[in-house]
């Protein structure tokens, strides 16, 4: 069960953290993985680690907000792997240069990065792979989102949450349009992840962990395992859903 042998998967923003975990698990399940990141060194490192485990991966550094670069890089990876992308995990969602402040302190030019990446970046990747999926009668799209898309929070992430809310709405409509072609699309809304330890003071991390029923932050390999399920043949009947993966956190 949940085997992905013979499938080609693209994971965006897979050069570290959550995306790295997803790429590794999909490859362990048998998929050939296109490891995307904005930074070539990150994509190369994760690709080398997957190959080291005896699995198949190719690195492609490109900016998902650039449609031409996205299409061109995916076509070249597909040619190298000998097939089309069957599984897309839109994971890239933390924009370089994003400014986190209360909305009143943001200038209009600071609104765009998180919205561009989470909406247009995700749609560009979908645009590049959706015809191949629909024409072949099989495809899986997994959109990584956040609980912040559906909950107001006073933590300076309103633009990020705007991008996540927008793409969640799009994915539900996409799922309704593409179900007839055997292409599913689901949203995995994450809670707080282990990589926050590097970004916040220990006392803040301690407080955050106290709010999570399982008593710890999220693990990229566990998220990868959930994505492997959603990408599998066995998940053919699961589509258009927003699935919280957050350790039971009620605050999302
Ligand atoms: N970390 C958390 O606590 C948390 C919580 C909820 C949701 N999420 C979501 O999980 C996903 C992964 O988050 P993370 O914490 O692992 O992020 P991260 O910043 O650790 O890694 C993301 C990777 O994406 C790459 N990237 C950024 N912009 C890109 C672009 N335009 N094109 C291609 N690659 C790009 C970065 O270079 C980076 O290597 C995101 O969608 C994020 O919104 C994370």
Write up this protein.
The structure is a single chain. This protein is an alpha/beta fold and about 250 residues long. It has one domain: NAD(P)-binding Rossmann-like Domain (Rossmann fold, 3-Layer(aba) Sandwich), CATH 3.40.50. Helices cover about 40% and strands about 15% of the residues. It has helices at about 15-30, 40-50, 65-80, 110-135, 160-180, 200-210, 220-230; strands at about 10, 30-35, 55-60, 85-90, 140-145, 185-190, 240-245. Strand 2 (about 30-35), helix 2 and strand 3 (about 55-60) form a beta-alpha-beta unit. Helix 1 (about 15-30) packs across helix 7, helix 3 (about 65-80) runs parallel beside helix 4 (about 110-135) and helix 4 (about 110-135) runs parallel beside helix 5. The mean pLDDT is about 95. The structure holds nicotinamide-adenine-dinucleotide (NAD). Nicotinamide-adenine-dinucleotide binds near residues 12, 16, 65, 117 and 146.
Summing up helix and strand content along with how strands pair, one would put the structural category as: alpha/beta
How many distinct beta strands? 7
Mean pLDDT, rounded to whole units? 97
Reported for the largest beta sheet, the result is:
7 strands, parallel
Number of helices: 7
Q: What would CATH call the class? A: Alpha Beta
Low-confidence parts lasting 5 or more residues at pLDDT below 50? Answer: none
Helix and strand element order: EHEHEHEHEHEHHE
Proportion of residues in helical segments? 40-55%
Task: Name the overall outline.
Answer: globular
Order of strands in the sheet with most strands: 3-2-1-4-5-6-7
What's the CATH topology label? Answer: Rossmann fold
How many separate domains?
1
CATH superfamily: NAD(P)-binding Rossmann-like Domain
What percent strand? 15-25%
Measure the end-to-end span. Answer: 30 Å
State Rg.
Answer: 17 Å
CATH architecture call: 3-Layer(aba) Sandwich
Present as ligands are:
nicotinamide-adenine-dinucleotide
